[in-house]
Structures are given as C-alpha cells and as structure tokens.
C-alpha cells in the first residue's frame, strides 16, 4: 500500500516506512542484518526510529490507536511495550533522547521514556469548518529540551524543564514539565518548520487565500523571529513549484540538516534545497531593502563589501528620510581619523542645513583636525538658527579649530538684540581667545557678568582695567574694590583719576583706602567728599588728620554751614572767640559753649560767655552751674541787673553754695590728713635716727685709715656715722660731710 510516513535514522543507514495496510518495514540501506517487517492489521500513520542508535536499529516506536515501543532483546527478538493509550490515533511522532513528542486528535503530548510517564497534554484548537486530523502536525526538536510544534496555522515553542522544589513537592507529578514559551498564529497553514538561529524559525507555509480561479497559490518559505506570543516575518519568499495550483496543504513538507543550515522543500513533483545566502549577497539584499543596521552588523563580522561603503549609503538613506540625528551619530562609525572622508560627509549636512546635528561628533583633536572652514560653517549655522548652541560650541571647542576674528565679525554682522546676552558672552570668550582682554572685559561688563573679576585675576589684567574702573564698580563694588585697593596691582592715583568723573564712587574708594592707608595723600579730597556724601564722618576725620588745608576745609564747612566742624577748625587756627560766637549764635548750645571755655580756659572767653548769658536769663543758671571751679561766680552774679528775673536762680545759687561748702570741707579734711601724715612721718624719721647702729672692729675711718674702734677700748672722742654708711672719728670729720660720697647728713653722732 501507499506509505504514510518515512523516517531515516541519524546516520542515514536505515529507513522505516508504514502504510494503511498495517505494515511496518525497516530496511537497511547497506545491510540486511537488522531488517524488520511487521504487520499490525490496522492503519499505521507514523513510525519513528531511535535517534541515538549506535549500531543497528535496537528500538523504534509505532503509532496507531496506541503508542508502542519495540525493543530488540539479547536474543535479537523484538519486544513490544505499550507506552500509553491514544485518543483516536497517533498522527505524528518526534523522538529526541528520552523524550518522545507525539500528536493525536486532541493535541500534543510529550512522553518521558526514563520515567515512563506522559508529561501532559497540550490541547490544540480545532480549526473552523475543518477537522484537526485533516492537517498534518509538524514536530521538531531544535535541541535536547526545546520542541517546535506547527499545526494548522499555529506555532508553539515549548521548553521541557525540570520541576523546581516547590513543583516537585507533590510525589504524583513527573520530574519534568512542558513549558510553552511562545505561541502565535501565522497568516498561512504550516507545512513544516525548522530552527534557524536563536529565536528564529524557517517555516514552509500554504497560503489560505485562493487565486481568482480558486486555485492554490504558491507556497511560501518564511523566516520568522518569535518573541513572547508574538512573531515578526523577517523575510518571505514565494516558491514556484510544478503543479502547485493543484496541491493541498498536506502535499508539502520541510526537512532540514540543522548542522549545515540546509533545508529541503518536498512537493509531489519537486524537491527544492534552500540554504543561507552568502554574506555578500545577504548584505546586498539588506541594503536593497533598506535594512542598513543589519547590513552593518554583518560587515563587522567579515564581508568583502567595505563597511565604510555600507555606512555611507546608510547616511545618505537617513538624510533622505530627514533622520538627521541618526545620520550624524553614524558619522562616528564612518570616517574615523580620515580628514578627507569627514569633510565629504559633513558637506552632505550643509545641503540640508543640518550641520548642527553633526557638530557634537566632529573630531576636535590634533589627530584629526578638519579644515577651519568646516568648523566655521558649523558655527555660522548655529549663529543663524541656535544662538544658545553657538555659545556652547564656543565654550567647548578649542579656539585653534577656527578663525576667531572671522567668527567675531560674523557675530557683529548677525547681532540680534533678543539674543544679546548669549552673543555678548560669546564675544567675550572669543576676544579672550584672541588675547584682546580689554574688549573681552567690555563684553562682560555689558553683560553685567561677574566672571569679569575672575578673568582679571586669571590673566592679571590690571593695566587693562584702568579705563574700565567705573563699570567694574557698577557691576560689583565690593569685588571691584578688592582689586582697586591693592596698590601692588594698580596705583591709587590711577583709580582716583578715573573716578574724578564720578564723585560718589571717588568718595567710596577714598573712604575705603583711608581705612588701610592713612598716609594722607588724598585727605584734601576726602574733606569735600565727606562734606558731600557722609557728613557724620567729617568731624572725626578733621580731628584725626593733619594732611588737609585748614583754610580750604573751613571754606567748605562755611559753604555747607557745618558749624561744629567750623568751631573745631577755628579753634585749631586760634580764632577761639569766633568759634565761641558760632557756638552761641549759630549752634546755640550753652553746654557746648561752657565745655569749649573749659577746654581753652581763657579769661576773655569766660567774660564773653558771661556777658552773652546775662542777655539770655534762661541760660544764666546753666552758666553758674558750669563755671564752678573755673571762674568766680561773683563775676556772674555781679552782672545781674536789679529786678532781672533769672529762672531757677535760687536753686542754682543754693547748688553752687552747697558745692563750695563741700569743697571747703574736703579741703579742710585733706589738710588735716596731710598734717597728721607729716607728723607721723617725722616721728618715724626721728625714731630711725635715734636707734643704735652696729659697728664692727673691721670698720676703718676713711680719713685716717685707722680702725674706728679697738677691741676692749673706747674711742677717745666718739664716732660719726653718715647716711651713706661711712664711719669717721669725730676729730676726723671736717665741715660735717663725708669725704668719700660727699654726704652732708650724718645719721648718728656718738660721743664717748
């Protein structure tokens, strides 16, 4: 009868066939020793040889209404072993090691020969308006534990794994479990499938659609990349086979030799061999289909086509799609350090005004520095379309890459007020790169950017700032003065000269300068500046300084009517009467007048003060209170006219008398204390002089050079002892003084 299934062992030495008449034949191609002929008397749809056979066929499996394993024993007799019953009949078998996958009318099972148990049933969805057994089930092991299933229009990838400890806790479950890792539908009926690469399959398909005359369409060979329950057709080829219009889905099958990546499309009249195309052909195909990333990936692993050529085509393609950023990134993979290639690729971006995209990838090192014109073009485009990006490039790029003066001119030609800050900062940086620090400082000052102070210190631009002193102070007075007050960096005369046009700034500067340098060079200016801007500091300054013109200072104070300052200056000039008149008539401060008179203690001043006070009765008592100890109060009282009303005169007179009374008592007590102290001191001196003095035998009279006393004898005329300690015989003393130290005072005069 007609063979339903053919299986060949891995070595290609034996062929197994089965047919509807129930016969199973195993035929050796090179030997008849292990040939087998079995008759079951029922339909046999599938047979499978042991895939691990070493010599001869020892085991094979037959599927009918049950799954039966036939194994040759030591006597070379076949022993059947029923593995398990089947729902309906066995439709397909695929054997790998100890695992046997087989399909029935309900679905697919995997049987574990080592544990002699089924690992479970994967039910298959019955197609609409058809029966499941009308479609051939395609099973294939891609490796020892991965099963590929293609049936009707569904593909399932399953992994057989060992159960974990939690799953294996139940002793009733097999040690392995079948995990479907991906299940997806195809647009065609599956006629066969085989593995290609990781996550990729080769699938032979039968189109579901029909031609206009209801004939079958050409079968397709697809490469499918699968993921979790989804798939993507990588490529699809239609096959032209003889008689394809008359064939059904079960007329096709797909075989493969996985080790060689060779695939066989089997049809009733043709066998087509399919293999992976050559690398160059594949790259060309990928380029033709705009799959440049894959083409580049292949080129990196070896290809006769230069990767550079592919990458340049890819850049052109991306520019056509207006994917400028991606094209710019790709430039890193193309020219390398080839200056000419870089410039050629960059000019492609010029045409579409997208140099901004490629700017981040341009080489800037000495190893591959492009023509300055290239960098300038990039800067011009940024200047035109993206001023912020332009400023960033000026900061990032080494200034030697481009002509700085040309860029400066371009900024001036395209200066826009709305971008003034960015453009001024860029100009400041460019001028710095050109060592034109004065212009750079002016730009920073226009920007009100305080980095100008860092620039001054970094490049020691102290000579340059002489014309920019006022703008610097306007920007930051504190930081400007830290520089301007350093005499080693810039002379105060230069600063003062520049600040003459701004008197307030001049006052600030000289005031700070006076705190650290009181030499007095600029004190004449400070008089006028304090008078104008900070009067409270004027009088203390006039008191502590001697380096200003008094006449000039007095003129300023007169003009401004600064009377306390005028009083001080007039007093210094000796015009104390005029000063007192100002106190009395301008300041009108009697206490100040009294203190002024006390300070100078001049009789004329006191008379003027008293005469003026008599004219103003309300201040007479204040004068009386103030002149105590300086002027006789009688002078004041005597000038008071009879009948003149003096407020609080009684209290003032009583206070004055009380003061004088206390003063008299104090003086009397002090005199008594002084006398007592005198007499006490006199008594101590007398007592000291009367006390005895020790005279030793070794003392010699300075006059006669003889011992003053002799042992066991008494001096005949007595001794004289002076305060200095020298001792004389009385008859040796002349004029009552010591000849040695000229001491006239003797502290002791002893007679016999």
From TrEMBL:
Residues 4-274 form the Vps41 beta-propeller domain. GO terms for biological process: cellular response to starvation; endosomal vesicle fusion; macroautophagy; protein targeting to vacuole. GO terms for cellular component: HOPS complex; late endosome. InterPro entries: ARM-type_fold, Beta-prop_Vps41, Clathrin_H-chain/VPS_repeat, TPR-like_helical_dom_sf, Vps41/Vps8, WD40/YVTN_repeat-like_dom_sf. The keyword Protein transport applies. CHCR repeats lie at residues 468-622. Keywords: Protein transport, Transport. PANTHER family: VACUOLAR PROTEIN SORTING VPS41, VACUOLAR PROTEIN SORTING-ASSOCIATED PROTEIN 41 HOMOLOG. This is VPS41. It comes from Drosophila virilis (Fruit fly).
